[in-house]
Amino acid sequence: MRSDADPSTWDLFKQGNWNAYTSLYHNYYSQLNNYGYKFTRNNNLIEDAIHDLFVRLWTSRANLGNPVSVKNYLFKSLRNTLLRKIKNEDKYTGLDTEDYPFGFEVSYAHQPGAGIEEKQFSEQVKAVINALPPRQKEIIYLRFYEGLSYDEIADVMSISTNSAYKLLYKALENLQQAIGPSQLLTLLLCLKHFL
Amino acid sequence: MNVAKYTDFTLQDFLADDAFIQWVLNPTDESNTDWQLLMNALPQKVETIEKASATIRQYRLQNTFYNEENKDLIWQRIESTITKQPAVTGQRKIIGLPIFAFMRAAAAVIIIAALSFWMITRNTAIKQYSFTTAFGEIKTITLPDQSQVTLNGNSSISYAAEWSKKMVREVWIKGEGYFNVTHLNADTTRIQPGEKFVVHCGDVNIEVLGTTFNVKARHGKTNVALITGKIRIDYTEAGTGNKAVVMAPGDYLEYAAKKLLVTKKLLKPASISTWRAKEISFSDASLKEIAETLQDSYGYSIDIKDSSLLSLKIEGDISVNNIADLLDVVSTTLNITIQQPADKHITITK
Prior knowledge:
heterodimer; A: mainly alpha; Butyryl-CoA Dehydrogenase, subunit A, domain 3; 9 helices; 0% strand; disordered C terminus; B: alpha+beta; Jelly Rolls; Phage tail protein beta-alpha-beta fold; 3 domains; 13-stranded mixed β-sheet; 3-stranded mixed β-sheet; 32% helix
């Protein structure tokens, strides 16, 4: 991971080093797009949010502190900027409110191959993830995909660490219920075949 | 590693455990050894541990959106904003305020009214260009301001041969077109007439600053899909009179019989204009829409005796290069019979 190199890049950037600023963009661009895409399928909004985020980063560099992690700081800023844009957009056009306010969607392509059991399992995971409420989906993403700690998640989502624990606990409980009791489930499935 | 800690762990507990997640996401030689030792010490937990790690791995197989193709473009935008930024002003917000929107509407009406008067009086002096495409023909036209319009088959456009900086840029379109409008405006708080671009389409007027969008007017129905930028649609509504709606990227609307019929967000706005690539494509289309496109853009005549067939829908995306392939896909997916007794004539039956 690049995070080791970050503090010094961040310091250089704050001193107005253009190369350091450019490398922040290059290092985080794809992760930020990927995260943004979970909130909206409107690429323009995501691109606008990334544009605004980096412009603001540069213009206010003198006033920026030293975040625990640069990635965290960028994720949090993108989230705030994007959610504000989504809200505005919604109010502005009055078109379609279905996707809003804050959806969080994870999508899966069709996965070929794999045995029946594995397929079944993957369908189970997808189904339970898709059924989670948006905030639970988001915390699962930040945890299992981005590997953030509870503190970092709390910071990105602007909630307390305690709430982050609780939220993840709820999401995991749902997961556990759906895929936890393995033997029982296989047994039930077998029985079904005989009935 | 603290083995005792994990003796009573459930699937859920493993999924909440920092050390466990770190191991699954970024395994190292050290953590591999640690967890192997743990599994040796707690054989009854092996299945749960494997299941927990499979869950995470399965979860991570999700689709990604890295948007690499626009990486350079967005960087250029960032650079140019930074370099020409004297002081950060809330440019976009100003457009959004209702008062300004109203003033803009008022200004547009006056300008257009004044302009039409001017055009009537100078009628003879202004040369009009017009282009028409045949069925199945796709043509891209560059307008005097370097904006581009791609016309779909059986469509036409007309506009003044010369555009001046003091004049609103205006075009009239019938059929379907994809616009890529050159952005002339630098200061959104003071829009000069020449910076305006108005598309007249049926009884709907589309006012643009700089943007790409698709407009289609067929069968008395107009639909507009905005791909990038921002546009305002002025239309008349039965009963209430003149109305306007501002569209944001991804918005789609349909208007007919003096009413807004559909307003929604498109999942893939860009796919609405794939016809430009001479590719025939549909997304969640009904047989009716497909038949209309065949008639409108390719000049086919279509016989469907059983009108209930029209509402059959093909879920998902279709993208083909020619009509023959399209008919193949449609007949096999919907399980209907499509015959072609003569060139450009089709009958559809069960």
